[in-house]
Structures are given as C-alpha cells and as structure tokens.
Amino acid sequence: SQKIEQNSEALNIQEGKTATLTCNYTNYSPAYLQWYRQDPGRGPVFLLLIRENEKEKRKERLKVTFDTTLKQSLFHITASQPADSATYLCALAVGAQTGANNLFFGTGTRLTVIP
Amino acid sequence: ETGVTQSPTHLIKTRGQQVTLRCSSQSGHNTVSWYQQALGQGPQFIFQYYREEENGRGNFPPRFSGLQFPNYSSELNVNALELDDSALYLCASSSFRDRALHFGNGTRLTVT
Predict the structure, then answer these.
(1) Residue A92 phi, psi (nearest 5)
(2) CA atoms of B32 and B23, how far apart (whole Å)
(3) B23 and which of A11, A16, B91, B109 could share a cystine (Cβ 3.0–4.6 Å)?
(4) Which of A43-52, B29-38, B47-56, B93-102 shows the lowest per-residue confidence on average (mean pLDDT)?
C-alpha cells in the first residue's frame, strides 16, 4: 500500500541549531514533492516545491533535498528561531502527467524551537 | 489579492444529516481541492475539481461529493454523516502553472 511517513511526530531543538525533518514514501512515483507549514487552527502554508529531477532547493533559511532512489526528502531549517515552531507537512504530487495536482500528505512533524 | 475563504468556520451536525461546506478560490486559480484533517493527522485528499470537472479522487466513499462553479468557487457535500466525519475540512486552490496549494483556514465539523 502507499505510505508517506514523517519519521518524528515531534522534534524539539535549541534556538540557533539546524532542524532536520524527514519524509519517506513507498509505492509512489511523485513528479514533485512539496513542504508546508501548519500553525494550530490554520490551514497549511506552502513553503517549497522540488521536482523529481532536482536534488536540492533552497529558500532563505530553508533547504529541501529529494532522493527518488531512497524515496526520501529531507527538510532543513538553519539558524532556527522560536517563530519556526509549527507542524511541517510533506506532500507528494500524483497525476501530474495528466495535469492533475493531487497532493497526498504525510502525518506531519511538530517542531518546537526552544529559546 | 483575496485568499481562499471557507464558510462556515464551525458546524455541528447530527449523525445521518447532510452538510454543505463552501469555498471561494483565490483569484486567478482555476483548480480547487478538498481535504479532511482529523486531529493530529495530516490532511487526507478527498477530491480535486478543475474547470467544473472532478480531476482526481482519494479514498472517500460516494457520499462525499462536490461541485465547482464557473467562478471557480466550490462546495463539498457530505450525506449520511457519521461520527468519524468529525474533522477539519480544508479547501485549497491552485493554478496549473503554480502547483502550490493555497489553503483556507477550514471548517471544523463536529458530528454528534
């Protein structure tokens, strides 16, 4: 069966350190993968998209890697700040070749940055 | 630029009833997706609409149905509500060019 696993339900990290979140998937062949941030009581907010032919993507303090052989994406936040505390979701795109944009989400990792 | 808006924000229904949730897309977006998010879980894909046609469906029974209107707004209808339907229902709009989903803040549905 298809699975998207984010290997930590919760991650606590000291302010200023690099947070690394993992997303593993099985039985998917995604054209691209996305990462979202979700705060309590709010909808997810898009952060980054990485395509299957890209190895790494950066945006300010964020970095995403995508390894289609390992079926894994890593999401890094460098110089973490308490304001980065939130739940982070990875999502795989299915059906992109037909023009669809059906995203399937993992269960999320709740990140807490401790001052 | 107006973001995605959903109504109502909260709703309480009784088992067996029917419910309609509404969503207004972000301007310039022609695709709308609906998700169900149970407490502590990631969003589960229900279906997607593109130009008023269903364009993908997740593992949800037929009592979950939807509509997209010419102005790209959308409705999610759930018939014969069950207790397990209690969740946050999220709507997201997107365009073909920009694959990012832009979410509303959801409708919290409680079924008693």
Answers:
(1) -105, 140
(2) 9
(3) B91
(4) B93-102
Contact check, Cβ <8 Å, B56/A95: yes
**Contacts of residue A93 in chain B, CB cutoff 8 Å?**
99
Q: What are the beta bridge partners of residue A66?
A: A73
- For chain B, which residues lie within 8 Å of any Cβ of chain A, measuring from their own Cβ? 4, 31, 33, 35, 40-45, 48, 50, 55-56, 58, 90, 92, 94, 96, 99-106
Is the pLDDT reported for residue B38 higher than 70? yes
Tell me what pLDDT residue A94 has: 74
Q: Has residue B91 got a pLDDT over 80?
A: yes
| Extended beta strands in chain B, E state | 5-7, 10-13, 19-24, 31-37, 44-50, 53-57, 64-68, 74-78, 87-94, 102-103, 107-111
- The mean pLDDT value of chain B amounts to 93
Alpha carbons A60 and A71: distance in angstroms, whole number: 25
Q: What is the mean pLDDT of residues B18-39?
A: 94
CA distance A79 to A110: 17
Higher pLDDT, A7 or B44: B44
Kindly state whether A34 is in contact with chain B, defined as any CB-CB distance less than 8 angstroms: yes
Nearest by CB: A44 against B40, B58, B103: B103
Check residue B32 and give its pLDDT: 94
Query: Which member of B4, B33, B96 has the closest CB to residue A99?
Result: B96
Locate the chain B residue with the closest alpha carbon to A104: B45
- Of B42, B109, B41, B44, nearest to B77 (Cα)? B109
